[in-house]
Each structure stands twice: as C-alpha cells, then as structure tokens.
Design brief:
128 residues; mainly beta
C-alpha cells in the first residue's frame, strides 16, 4: 500500500485515512480469490500483551478480509466471505484503474464510520 486517503465531500479536504505510512497488501489470484490486509501506520503498544483499551485501538486501526472477486465495467467487486468485521460480508463494489505497476481503488461517496461525514476514499497500491 502506498496510501489511503479520505476526501471530505463537503470541504474537499484530503487526509490520511489510516494515518501516515499505512502498511497494506492485496493479493489477487488467478483462481478468482483475493485477500486484503491493512494496518494503520501508527499502532502503539505499551507492553507485549495489549490491554483491553489497546485491543480496541488495534482493531480500529486495521482491516482484513478474504473474498472472491470479479471485474465488471471498470469496477472490481470483492464478494467478501470472511472479514475482521462481519458487517463487510457481501459485495464491496469499487471503481479501479491500473497505471503501470500501480492500482488505484476508489469509491463513490459514503459515510465515514467514525464521523458520519460524507467522504470518498482512495487507495493506492504498488505491485511487489
């Protein structure tokens, strides 16, 4: 993952959705399966075993899921069958484009789950 930005529809302001320097990978396989994992760039932990409060922060600063996928009219559809958040089961439909060895995935405006603000997320990945 190169970046994950969040653009406010109301103001146009762009910020890092997972903090600076997120760590993330998408793996697309020829059999039509994929996996995604993303971690926020700053995930502090005080000791070897997280406290309950730290566990909540760690959960909120990551995502992971597995899915089958299809490509359709400039959109990638992830048919999620397992996720860190069970509410993600079902179809995640996102416009995408490929530019050289970079993949850009963006979405139509949607609600930020933490603020309720209408935003557009854009994710950028580089092939490794």
């Amino acid at each position: 993952m190169i970046s994950w930005t969040r653009q406010s529809v109301a103001t146009g302001e762009i910020s890092d959705a997972m903090g600076p320097n997120p760590l993330g990978y998408l793996a697309y396989h020829a059999d039509g399966r994929m996996m995604a994992v993303v971690f926020g760039g700053d995930r502090p932990l005080k000791g070897a075993v997280p406290t309950d409060e730290e566990k909540a922060v760690l959960f909120d600063s990551m995502l992971a899921y597995s899915a089958s996928y299809t490509l359709e009219n400039g959109r990638i559809i992830h048919h999620v069958d397992g996720a860190w958040n069970p509410a993600w089961k079902g179809a995640l439909i996102r416009p995408y484009r490929v530019d050289g060895n970079r993949l850009f995935i963006s979405g139509a405006p949607g609600k930020d789950p933490t603020t309720g603000e209408e935003v557009i997320y854009t994710l950028e990945f580089e092939k490794v």
